[in-house]
Automatic annotation (TrEMBL):
It comes from Candidatus Cohnella colombiensis. This is AtpZ/AtpI family protein. Pfam families: ATPase_gene1. Keywords: Membrane, Transmembrane, Transmembrane helix. The chain crosses the membrane at residues 20-40, 52-73.
Length: 82
């Protein structure tokens, strides 16, 4: 093969499949946290006759999902806690 047609070698820690897995994991994790918060908030609304429980659940799910995503990114990049 000539030099111009050869693909460049990737360093062993820059696997594109690993990055794709991270992105997919982040999306799934965030969606599950938000969905679980909505579901628990809806149960709260049904039991107590309120209309704000699902919104509170979604916000709590979003915050916990972001926190979990940050932890996953830190684990992936090898960064330590501040």
């Amino acid at each position: 093969m000539t030099e111009s047609t050869r693909k460049p070698e990737l360093p062993p820690d820059e696997n594109p499949w690993k990055a794709a897995g991270l992105v997919a994991g982040l999306g799934i994790e965030l969606a599950v946290c938000i969905g679980l918060g909505w579901w628990l908030g809806s149960i709260y609304d049904n039991r107590n006759g309120t209309d704000y429980g699902y919104i509170t659940g979604v916000v709590i799910g979003l915050v916990s999902g972001i926190g979990s995503a940050v932890a996953l990114i830190r684990k992936y990049t090898g960064a330590s806690k501040p």
